[in-house]
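Side project, low priority. Logging it here so it doesn't get lost.
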Amino acid sequence: MTLGATLAFGAYDTGGVLLNVDELKPGMKGYGKTVFSGEKIEEFDVEILGVLKNWETKNDMILVKLSGGPLEKTGVISGMSGSPVYVEDKVIGAVSYGWGFAKEAIAGVTPIREMLKVLEAGEKEGKILGDARSPLELFASSRSGLLPPSWELPLEQQEVNVREALAREGLGKQSALRMVPIKTPLVVAGFDQRVLKEMSEELERYGLFPVQGGGSAAPAEGQAGEYAGSTAELVPGAAVAAVLAKGDINASAIGTLTYRHEDNILAFGHPFMQAGRTDIPMAGAHVHAVIPIQSTSLKLASPTRILGRIFQDSKAALAGTLGKFSKMIPCTIRVIGNQEVEYNFDVVKDKFMTQNLLQWASESALLSTERQTGDKTVRLSLSVEIEGRERPVKVENIYYEPHPTWFPVYSITQPITLIMNNPFQEVSIKKIVLEAHVSDERRLAYIEDIKVENREVKPGETVQLYVTIRPFGKEARVITVPLQIPYDVSPESIITVDVCNADTSQALERSRAPEKFLPTSLEHLIKILEDTEPNTNLVVRALLPKRGITYRGQPLPSLPSSLLAIMSFPNQTGVNRLMEEVVSKKSVGWILQGSQNFTLTVKERI
């Protein structure tokens, strides 16, 4: 090894076991290590095809041809990511990139030098995957007033998504041949098959694809509650698993360990979700079989024992430590309906995956215990315990579901993402409980009509609104809702009244008073989440003009009459009439649909 190569690797090459890309030549032969069956590490042949210098900015890529074992039949295998490659018995990097539908097992190898940078970075703060928009934008752009299911993707993954979209349209086929990270199999168990499609669509952006498997990462014998076991078997070439969930549901990403220095390890050779600093349990893995598939062959594997933790998820590798362990979040899902079932599992603390795993588990629980056709009314309640906070966060609402769609579950689990991604302070979740009470009924009512005794009102008067609602299959009912007209409403003005359900009410509120949805602290954010309008509320919103104006957003209610007359016809922007909204609510016991509106005219008080 040259002096330059030794210096490049630093303290992690104490035995001179690493080889720099500058020393590689086309035609050089070597070997790799991986697991094709069980936990036995096997060797396969490698031929160096060349080095792609500056393949991406300041990054090189080693191009190799693989052979031996099942590779002639399977090509590059999903789950091989991280398989170490050796030339002259020295590590050059990890198998990590490839092409779909390739006829030969040609792969890209991430140089070990790039991977070691991740280990050297240790647990420094990295790029955290999340949404960089302001809380106001998050609330305002969402269909439910909460965070929409979109995330800031790494640039390279955005490019891949564009190319995949073009390929689906039959366009840009040359661009779609770009070398990309080998897809990572996410072995899952306990999820309903119908949920797997939704999981596939969401995980595809990260190069993950769910594979139905089995097994669960377990503690060592005699160490109940401790995620610990022998780490002797975790050597380069061993199968490893990044454990995202374990218990009644399981989800583990399968890859290969590349390099170990004492208790520090490197794996995968490409990002998992490129989350930067992270905290994911790491386990060994048992490979049941290699499944040859024309597009991408895969290892069908299950996690064994949790042996350490992953603390960096970077573009070049996953970095972790053996003998140190991650704290997972205990979760409980209870479904109470035709059957009563309880699911218990632990999920990883992750700003992207925690909510998604809970949502998919909840959907699976409902699918496995309740009928899929016919009427269903579902009351969902979420309780989230946070470290250092005495009272758990509680969100609850009731929904009608004629078909197996999952917007209600999404709505009730979404606060988890908002809390974990809040811009105010770090949050550590201790426990999550989700309950679903299901009844086979259509508990719907439609807002049919509104009546008032007089359409002309006076300042300070209380108006009785008679709202007719028609519950499904029942006689119409009249709900009386009082509306107090303020004393300072402008005479001869028109009051617009909307009688609506919770969804319409929240949409009107977000458009008329968006500042209410701009949290200023974690507690304020929690209050907004807990104050979500129940779907059984009948809401009356009256928008009325008051005496005065707003100038550049500031209310000016006490202007002299002469100045008010001048300002009411401005020759500049930023001047508007001063408006106020009066809101009345009444719970009716049915999930409301529809809306009605009308106007009232304000007369002078005599």
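Brief comment: The longest strand covers residues 40-56.
Revisit when time allows.
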